[in-house]
Specification:
Number of strands: 22
Strand content: 15-25%
Oligomer: single chain
Structural class: alpha/beta
Helix content: 25-40%
Shape: elongated
Distance between the termini: 77 Å
Largest sheet: 10 strands, mixed
Length: 463
């Protein structure tokens, strides 16, 4: 492409609307290329081409369009897509949503410049996720196991402690078989408040977890358009760590709802025909472009595992954001407002929660031979205990048989001992499974139909 065209400066801004700027009379401009903008006050900003029609370019401005006008704003099209300079020195550092350091440390000297849109992963080169990741949280490790290369979202509600859970997973997650040496966490926060940002930074610093965490932070008062960049910056860094430095990377993205709101804002500014609830029709493919960057590649040592966190508007699991996320990802961890009201932390409701790849990551040689049976038995007994609570509300506890009362006691104990744990409690998978057997000892032995008979004398404590 002709460099003279690329270095040409335009002062032909025709319109500024919301986060968008329309530039007329342009030549040789390509979709998705980066634009350098000089404001009337002399400030430098950056943008990206969203659409090109003949000699008109639609540009989204990352730092917002305040103070821009149609007379003296200057633009220059660089001919390059958005890139991030990556280095192993990014571990232990905190960046803003566009990849600039905000922790007071030095600028990163990049080992490589990578396109933030990533390279497509060949489906035939993917390896099936099969290694257990221990989060130290019983409801995840025991009942909805996370495996290396999986994408397992957390569905939360407004006011529920998903931030505490995210910080705990970031601190505690480890690949047992490999040790901690090659394990890293990339934490990308989108649209969070200053209070939440301080909580995460202090928590990582206080616990020493920051050494193996790279943080990308887009705050609520940052331009919402930056939110569209943040997960891509984080995942590009993850791909570098995983596939070039052979590390096992856990990417925590919070809150995907804010990301989707930014998509809706840009879509509305472009006057696009809205889809469900005003979100753009391409939101599914946009989310898939983020989630599908998790996985393992044949012949590569490293892996990328994703735990996206999203707040369901009005606790509605059928809302487009959780609904589409559920289609693309491999399960979900659902937080319950009812458990939260009881003072239970983490308020994970195991009944609607699911990990579709759990069976590949558990069992003899990975966790323990009895894991699958214990998980199924705990799930079945807790479901029955929950159903009996509804019955008790109608007929009273006295009307229940002794068998039914044991299931009722089990449901209470399951919530108070298995689900409940401290915010700094890091349970091993052996502790989780032993706790499961201890709770199963509350039930009659004849009811333990989902565990193998040979495991009962080996693991079941005497009641």
């Amino acid at each position: 492409m002709n460099t003279n065209i690329k270095t040409k400066e335009y002062t032909t801004v025709a319109e500024v609307a919301g986060p968008l700027m329309i530039v007329e009379g342009v030549e040789g401009v390509a979709y998705s290329e980066i634009v350098e903008i000089k404001t009337p006050a002399g400030e430098d900003r950056r943008g990206q081409v969203l659409e090109v029609r003949e000699d008109v370019a639609v540009v989204q401005v990352f730092e917002g369009t305040s103070d821009l006008n149609t007379k003296t704003t200057k633009t220059r099209f660089t001919g390059e897509t958005a890139k991030i300079g990556v280095s192993i020195d990014m571990l232990g550092r905190i960046f803003d949503g566009t990849g600039k350091p905000i922790d007071g440390g030095p600028e990163i000297i990049p080992e490589k410049e990578l396109d933030i849109n990533g390279a497509p992963m060949n489906p035939s080169a993917r390896e099936f996720p099969a290694e257990f990741i221990q989060t130290g949280i019983s409801t995840i490790d025991g009942m909805n196991t996370l495996v290396r290369g999986q994408k397992l979202p957390i569905f939360s509600g407004s006011g529920l402690p998903h931030n505490d859970l995210a910080a705990q997973i970031a601190r505690q997650a480890k690949v047992i078989s490999e040790g901690d040496d090659e394990f890293a966490v990339i934490f990308a926060a989108m649209g969070i408040t200053h209070e939440e940002a301080n909580f995460f930074m202090k928590d990582f610093e206080r616990t020493g977890a920051l050494e193996r965490v790279t943080v990308f932070m887009n705050l609520a008062d940052d331009p919402s358009i930056e939110r569209i960049l943040t997960p891509k910056m984080a995942l590009t860094t993850a791909e570098y760590f995983a596939f070039e430095k052979n590390m096992h990377v856990l990417v925590i993205l919070t809150d995907l709802t804010n990301y989707c709101e930014a998509l809706r804002e840009v879509s509305a500014a472009r006057s696009e025909v809205p889809g469900r609830r005003g979100y753009p029709g391409y939101m599914y493919t946009d989310l898939a472009g983020i989630y599908e960057r998790a996985g393992r590649i044949d012949g590569k040592e490293g892996s990328i595992t994703q735990m996206p966190i999203l707040v369901m508007p009005q606790d509605d699991i059928t809302h487009p954001i959780p609904d589409l996320t559920g289609y693309i990802t491999e399960g979900q961890i659902v937080l319950s407002r009812e458990l939260h009201r009881k003072g239970i932390y983490p308020p994970v409701d195991v009944l609607p929660s699911l990990s579709r790849l759990m069976s590949g990551g558990i069992g003899d040689g990975r966790t323990r031979e009895d894991h699958s049976g214990v998980s199924d038995q705990l799930y079945s007994a807790y479901a029955e205990g929950r159903n009996l609570r509804d019955l008790v509300a109608v007929v009273g506890e006295e009307a229940l048989t002794e068998r039914d009362q044991s299931f009722l006691r089990f449901a209470d104990a399951f919530e108070s001992e298995f689900i409940t744990q401290a915010k700094d409690e890091d349970r091993t998978i052996q502790e989780t499974l032993d706790l499961g057997w201890k709770l199963l000892s509350l039930l009659p032995k004849s009811e333990l139909k989902r565990v193998k008979e040979e495991h009962i004398p080996k693991y079941l404590p005497e009641s």
